[in-house]
# Entry
Amino acid sequence: MLGITLIGMTSSWHDPSSLGLCHFHGARQVFSIWMNQFDLMDLQLPSHRIQRLIASSMVYWEVMASCLIDQEVGALSYLDVFSALPPTTFCYPCPWTGVGTNILIHLAKCMTIVRQRRRLISYNYSMGGDIDVSSRSVDLLTQAFTLSLDIDQCQIPTPAEIQDTGDYRTPPDHLCKIAKCYQLVARLELDRAFPELTQGLQNDQTQDSLLSQHILELAVKILEIINTIPEDSRTIAIQTIIILAAGSALGSSSNADTNIKVLVAGWRRFVLGRLHNSFLSLKLQTINRVSTVLQGAWARMDSVAIEAPDSTSFDKSPILLVHWIDVMTEAGLETILG
# Structure
Protein backbone atom coordinates (compact mmCIF):
# COMPACT_ATOMS: atom_id res chain seq x y z
CA MET A 1 0.00 0.00 0.00
CA LEU A 2 2.75 2.42 0.95
CA GLY A 3 4.65 1.55 -2.22
CA ILE A 4 1.68 2.36 -4.47
CA THR A 5 1.17 5.64 -2.63
CA LEU A 6 4.78 6.73 -2.97
CA ILE A 7 4.95 5.82 -6.66
CA GLY A 8 1.64 7.48 -7.49
CA MET A 9 2.04 10.71 -5.55
CA THR A 10 5.59 11.29 -6.77
CA SER A 11 4.89 10.55 -10.44
CA SER A 12 4.65 14.28 -11.22
CA TRP A 13 8.08 14.82 -9.71
CA HIS A 14 9.56 13.30 -12.86
CA ASP A 15 6.90 14.51 -15.30
CA PRO A 16 4.65 17.35 -14.06
CA SER A 17 1.89 16.26 -16.44
CA SER A 18 1.80 12.76 -14.93
CA LEU A 19 -1.08 12.63 -12.46
CA GLY A 20 -0.61 9.10 -11.16
CA LEU A 21 -4.34 8.45 -11.38
CA CYS A 22 -3.97 4.82 -12.46
CA HIS A 23 -2.04 4.22 -9.24
CA PHE A 24 -4.58 6.28 -7.31
CA HIS A 25 -7.61 4.20 -8.28
CA GLY A 26 -5.69 1.02 -7.52
CA ALA A 27 -4.58 2.42 -4.17
CA ARG A 28 -8.19 3.04 -3.18
CA GLN A 29 -9.01 -0.63 -3.67
CA VAL A 30 -5.92 -1.84 -1.81
CA PHE A 31 -6.57 0.66 0.98
CA SER A 32 -10.13 -0.63 1.42
CA ILE A 33 -8.79 -4.15 1.82
CA TRP A 34 -6.21 -2.92 4.32
CA MET A 35 -8.90 -1.11 6.35
CA ASN A 36 -10.97 -4.28 6.61
CA GLN A 37 -8.00 -6.20 7.95
CA PHE A 38 -6.85 -3.66 10.52
CA ASP A 39 -8.43 -2.44 13.76
CA LEU A 40 -8.52 1.32 13.20
CA MET A 41 -8.73 2.01 16.93
CA ASP A 42 -5.13 0.78 17.14
CA LEU A 43 -4.06 3.92 15.25
CA GLN A 44 -4.09 5.67 18.62
CA LEU A 45 -1.20 3.51 19.84
CA PRO A 46 2.23 5.16 19.62
CA SER A 47 3.72 1.97 18.13
CA HIS A 48 1.48 2.05 15.03
CA ARG A 49 3.46 4.69 13.16
CA ILE A 50 3.40 2.90 9.81
CA GLN A 51 -0.37 2.42 9.96
CA ARG A 52 -0.91 6.12 10.70
CA LEU A 53 1.45 7.01 7.86
CA ILE A 54 -0.53 4.83 5.44
CA ALA A 55 -3.87 6.32 6.50
CA SER A 56 -2.62 9.91 6.44
CA SER A 57 -0.91 9.43 3.09
CA MET A 58 -4.12 8.17 1.51
CA VAL A 59 -6.01 11.15 2.90
CA TYR A 60 -3.43 13.53 1.43
CA TRP A 61 -3.61 11.77 -1.93
CA GLU A 62 -7.38 12.16 -1.90
CA VAL A 63 -6.93 15.92 -1.50
CA MET A 64 -4.56 16.04 -4.46
CA ALA A 65 -6.91 13.93 -6.59
CA SER A 66 -9.99 15.95 -5.63
CA CYS A 67 -8.44 18.93 -7.40
CA LEU A 68 -8.01 16.90 -10.59
CA ILE A 69 -10.95 14.53 -11.07
CA ASP A 70 -14.73 14.83 -11.16
CA GLN A 71 -16.42 12.59 -8.62
CA GLU A 72 -19.22 12.51 -6.07
CA VAL A 73 -18.53 13.28 -2.41
CA GLY A 74 -19.72 9.76 -1.64
CA ALA A 75 -16.51 8.44 -3.17
CA LEU A 76 -14.72 9.83 -0.12
CA SER A 77 -17.10 8.43 2.48
CA TYR A 78 -14.71 5.59 3.29
CA LEU A 79 -12.52 8.18 5.04
CA ASP A 80 -15.25 9.17 7.50
CA VAL A 81 -14.15 6.50 9.97
CA PHE A 82 -10.93 8.46 10.53
CA SER A 83 -12.87 11.62 11.38
CA ALA A 84 -14.66 9.65 14.10
CA LEU A 85 -11.39 8.74 15.85
CA PRO A 86 -10.25 10.78 18.89
CA PRO A 87 -8.41 14.01 17.93
CA THR A 88 -5.22 12.75 19.58
CA THR A 89 -4.96 9.94 17.02
CA PHE A 90 -3.21 12.15 14.48
CA CYS A 91 -1.14 14.26 16.85
CA TYR A 92 1.77 12.17 15.61
CA PRO A 93 3.19 14.17 12.66
CA CYS A 94 2.94 12.75 9.14
CA PRO A 95 5.21 13.94 6.28
CA TRP A 96 2.16 14.42 4.03
CA THR A 97 -0.54 15.79 6.31
CA GLY A 98 1.40 17.15 9.28
CA VAL A 99 -1.19 17.06 12.06
CA GLY A 100 -4.14 18.08 9.89
CA THR A 101 -5.37 14.68 8.72
CA ASN A 102 -8.94 15.27 9.88
CA ILE A 103 -9.08 18.72 8.29
CA LEU A 104 -7.69 17.34 5.04
CA ILE A 105 -10.52 14.80 4.85
CA HIS A 106 -12.92 17.74 4.79
CA LEU A 107 -10.71 19.67 2.34
CA ALA A 108 -10.87 16.73 -0.09
CA LYS A 109 -14.67 16.81 0.07
CA CYS A 110 -14.62 20.58 -0.27
CA MET A 111 -12.57 20.51 -3.47
CA THR A 112 -14.81 17.75 -4.82
CA ILE A 113 -17.96 19.84 -4.59
CA VAL A 114 -16.13 22.98 -5.74
CA ARG A 115 -15.16 21.14 -8.92
CA GLN A 116 -18.79 20.06 -9.34
CA ARG A 117 -19.94 23.64 -8.85
CA ARG A 118 -17.47 24.96 -11.43
CA ARG A 119 -18.52 22.25 -13.89
CA LEU A 120 -22.19 23.11 -13.37
CA ILE A 121 -21.54 26.80 -14.03
CA SER A 122 -19.53 25.98 -17.14
CA TYR A 123 -22.19 23.61 -18.47
CA ASN A 124 -24.98 26.09 -17.88
CA TYR A 125 -22.98 28.83 -19.60
CA SER A 126 -22.18 26.63 -22.61
CA MET A 127 -25.89 25.85 -23.00
CA GLY A 128 -26.77 29.53 -22.99
CA GLY A 129 -28.39 29.33 -19.57
CA ASP A 130 -31.31 27.36 -20.99
CA ILE A 131 -30.79 24.30 -18.79
CA ASP A 132 -32.50 24.07 -15.41
CA VAL A 133 -29.74 23.21 -12.97
CA SER A 134 -31.55 24.46 -9.87
CA SER A 135 -32.05 20.99 -8.39
CA ARG A 136 -28.37 20.11 -8.68
CA SER A 137 -27.38 23.53 -7.37
CA VAL A 138 -29.53 23.06 -4.27
CA ASP A 139 -28.02 19.63 -3.69
CA LEU A 140 -24.48 21.00 -3.89
CA LEU A 141 -25.35 23.93 -1.64
CA THR A 142 -26.78 21.56 0.96
CA GLN A 143 -23.57 19.53 0.90
CA ALA A 144 -21.51 22.72 1.12
CA PHE A 145 -23.48 23.97 4.12
CA THR A 146 -23.02 20.71 6.03
CA LEU A 147 -19.35 20.61 5.13
CA SER A 148 -18.80 24.21 6.23
CA LEU A 149 -20.12 23.36 9.70
CA ASP A 150 -17.82 20.34 9.92
CA ILE A 151 -14.83 22.42 8.85
CA ASP A 152 -15.51 25.12 11.43
CA GLN A 153 -15.77 22.48 14.16
CA CYS A 154 -12.46 20.79 13.32
CA GLN A 155 -10.06 20.93 16.24
CA ILE A 156 -6.41 21.73 15.62
CA PRO A 157 -4.01 20.30 18.22
CA THR A 158 -1.81 22.70 20.15
CA PRO A 159 1.99 22.46 19.81
CA ALA A 160 2.11 20.95 23.30
CA GLU A 161 -0.14 18.08 22.19
CA ILE A 162 2.02 17.16 19.20
CA GLN A 163 4.77 14.59 19.39
CA ASP A 164 8.13 16.25 18.80
CA THR A 165 9.28 15.86 15.20
CA GLY A 166 12.96 15.60 16.07
CA ASP A 167 13.61 18.13 13.30
CA TYR A 168 14.53 21.65 14.39
CA ARG A 169 13.39 22.94 10.98
CA THR A 170 9.89 21.55 11.49
CA PRO A 171 8.83 22.27 15.08
CA PRO A 172 5.27 21.45 16.19
CA ASP A 173 4.06 25.05 15.82
CA HIS A 174 4.82 24.95 12.07
CA LEU A 175 2.52 21.94 11.75
CA CYS A 176 -0.24 23.68 13.72
CA LYS A 177 -0.01 26.68 11.41
CA ILE A 178 -0.20 24.49 8.31
CA ALA A 179 -3.27 22.73 9.71
CA LYS A 180 -4.90 26.12 10.36
CA CYS A 181 -4.13 27.16 6.79
CA TYR A 182 -5.78 23.99 5.46
CA GLN A 183 -8.87 24.83 7.49
CA LEU A 184 -8.97 28.39 6.15
CA VAL A 185 -8.38 27.20 2.57
CA ALA A 186 -11.38 24.88 2.86
CA ARG A 187 -13.47 27.79 4.11
CA LEU A 188 -12.20 30.10 1.38
CA GLU A 189 -12.97 27.61 -1.39
CA LEU A 190 -16.47 26.92 -0.08
CA ASP A 191 -17.38 30.58 0.41
CA ARG A 192 -15.98 31.45 -2.99
CA ALA A 193 -17.96 28.74 -4.76
CA PHE A 194 -21.12 29.08 -2.68
CA PRO A 195 -21.73 32.73 -1.73
CA GLU A 196 -25.02 31.67 -0.16
CA LEU A 197 -22.96 30.41 2.80
CA THR A 198 -22.09 33.99 3.68
CA GLN A 199 -25.55 35.53 3.53
CA GLY A 200 -24.80 37.58 6.62
CA LEU A 201 -22.38 39.59 4.50
CA GLN A 202 -24.80 40.28 1.67
CA ASN A 203 -27.46 42.69 0.60
CA ASP A 204 -28.80 43.47 -2.84
CA GLN A 205 -26.62 46.51 -3.41
CA THR A 206 -23.22 45.44 -2.12
CA GLN A 207 -23.18 41.68 -2.60
CA ASP A 208 -20.20 41.74 -4.95
CA SER A 209 -17.99 44.05 -2.92
CA LEU A 210 -18.69 42.40 0.44
CA LEU A 211 -18.14 38.88 -0.84
CA SER A 212 -14.97 39.86 -2.67
CA GLN A 213 -13.68 41.62 0.44
CA HIS A 214 -14.47 38.56 2.57
CA ILE A 215 -12.62 36.19 0.23
CA LEU A 216 -9.66 38.56 -0.07
CA GLU A 217 -9.46 38.86 3.72
CA LEU A 218 -9.41 35.07 4.06
CA ALA A 219 -6.66 34.83 1.44
CA VAL A 220 -4.54 37.45 3.17
CA LYS A 221 -5.06 35.79 6.56
CA ILE A 222 -3.80 32.49 5.13
CA LEU A 223 -0.76 34.12 3.54
CA GLU A 224 0.03 36.01 6.74
CA ILE A 225 0.23 32.68 8.55
CA ILE A 226 2.43 31.22 5.82
CA ASN A 227 4.67 34.28 6.10
CA THR A 228 5.34 33.46 9.77
CA ILE A 229 6.74 30.06 8.77
CA PRO A 230 10.43 30.31 7.80
CA GLU A 231 11.23 29.50 4.19
CA ASP A 232 13.61 26.75 5.28
CA SER A 233 10.83 24.92 7.16
CA ARG A 234 10.37 21.41 5.83
CA THR A 235 6.65 22.08 5.65
CA ILE A 236 7.50 23.85 2.40
CA ALA A 237 6.77 20.54 0.66
CA ILE A 238 3.10 20.66 1.68
CA GLN A 239 2.44 24.38 1.27
CA THR A 240 1.80 24.41 -2.50
CA ILE A 241 -1.97 23.90 -2.51
CA ILE A 242 -2.32 26.44 0.31
CA ILE A 243 -0.39 29.09 -1.60
CA LEU A 244 -2.27 28.30 -4.81
CA ALA A 245 -5.73 28.58 -3.27
CA ALA A 246 -4.98 31.74 -1.30
CA GLY A 247 -2.91 33.32 -4.06
CA SER A 248 -5.63 32.78 -6.64
CA ALA A 249 -7.98 34.97 -4.58
CA LEU A 250 -5.70 38.00 -4.81
CA GLY A 251 -7.79 40.20 -7.05
CA SER A 252 -9.65 43.49 -7.01
CA SER A 253 -12.02 45.53 -9.14
CA SER A 254 -10.63 48.34 -11.27
CA ASN A 255 -12.38 50.92 -9.10
CA ALA A 256 -11.10 49.44 -5.85
CA ASP A 257 -9.42 51.63 -3.27
CA THR A 258 -5.73 52.28 -3.97
CA ASN A 259 -4.79 50.63 -0.67
CA ILE A 260 -6.53 47.43 -1.77
CA LYS A 261 -4.66 47.41 -5.08
CA VAL A 262 -1.35 47.92 -3.27
CA LEU A 263 -2.24 45.13 -0.84
CA VAL A 264 -3.08 42.74 -3.68
CA ALA A 265 0.09 43.58 -5.61
CA GLY A 266 2.24 43.09 -2.52
CA TRP A 267 0.82 39.69 -1.67
CA ARG A 268 1.08 38.59 -5.31
CA ARG A 269 4.81 39.32 -5.14
CA PHE A 270 5.05 37.39 -1.89
CA VAL A 271 3.30 34.37 -3.41
CA LEU A 272 5.55 34.26 -6.47
CA GLY A 273 8.60 34.73 -4.28
CA ARG A 274 7.60 31.91 -1.94
CA LEU A 275 6.91 29.58 -4.87
CA HIS A 276 10.24 30.48 -6.47
CA ASN A 277 12.10 29.66 -3.27
CA SER A 278 10.13 26.42 -3.01
CA PHE A 279 11.26 25.50 -6.50
CA LEU A 280 14.89 26.28 -5.69
CA SER A 281 14.62 24.05 -2.63
CA LEU A 282 12.62 21.13 -4.06
CA LYS A 283 13.47 21.39 -7.79
CA LEU A 284 9.96 20.26 -8.78
CA GLN A 285 8.49 21.53 -12.06
CA THR A 286 5.04 21.12 -10.54
CA ILE A 287 5.76 24.30 -8.56
CA ASN A 288 6.49 26.23 -11.75
CA ARG A 289 3.18 25.00 -13.13
CA VAL A 290 1.42 26.41 -10.10
CA SER A 291 3.11 29.76 -10.68
CA THR A 292 1.90 29.71 -14.29
CA VAL A 293 -1.65 28.87 -13.20
CA LEU A 294 -1.63 31.70 -10.67
CA GLN A 295 -0.38 34.25 -13.16
CA GLY A 296 -3.04 33.09 -15.61
CA ALA A 297 -5.74 33.50 -12.95
CA TRP A 298 -4.49 36.97 -12.04
CA ALA A 299 -4.39 38.05 -15.69
CA ARG A 300 -7.94 36.82 -16.17
CA MET A 301 -9.16 38.56 -13.01
CA ASP A 302 -7.49 41.81 -14.04
CA SER A 303 -9.14 41.53 -17.45
CA VAL A 304 -12.57 40.97 -15.90
CA ALA A 305 -12.06 43.98 -13.63
CA ILE A 306 -11.30 46.22 -16.60
CA GLU A 307 -14.22 44.92 -18.66
CA ALA A 308 -16.79 45.36 -15.86
CA PRO A 309 -15.45 48.10 -13.56
CA ASP A 310 -18.81 49.08 -12.07
CA SER A 311 -20.44 45.66 -11.76
CA THR A 312 -22.08 44.68 -8.48
CA SER A 313 -23.37 41.30 -9.62
CA PHE A 314 -21.89 38.01 -8.45
CA ASP A 315 -21.21 36.71 -11.95
CA LYS A 316 -19.01 39.73 -12.77
CA SER A 317 -16.85 39.79 -9.63
CA PRO A 318 -13.20 39.06 -10.61
CA ILE A 319 -12.48 37.07 -7.46
CA LEU A 320 -15.71 35.09 -7.64
CA LEU A 321 -15.84 34.60 -11.40
CA VAL A 322 -12.30 33.36 -12.02
CA HIS A 323 -11.14 30.12 -10.42
CA TRP A 324 -7.73 28.50 -10.57
CA ILE A 325 -9.22 25.08 -11.36
CA ASP A 326 -10.71 26.46 -14.58
CA VAL A 327 -7.45 28.16 -15.53
CA MET A 328 -5.43 25.03 -14.81
CA THR A 329 -7.78 22.75 -16.75
CA GLU A 330 -8.21 24.99 -19.78
CA ALA A 331 -4.45 25.48 -20.10
CA GLY A 332 -3.74 21.75 -19.68
CA LEU A 333 -1.59 22.44 -16.63
CA GLU A 334 -3.04 19.79 -14.32
CA THR A 335 -0.45 18.41 -11.93
CA ILE A 336 -0.19 16.89 -8.47
CA LEU A 337 -0.20 19.88 -6.13
CA GLY A 338 2.03 18.40 -3.48
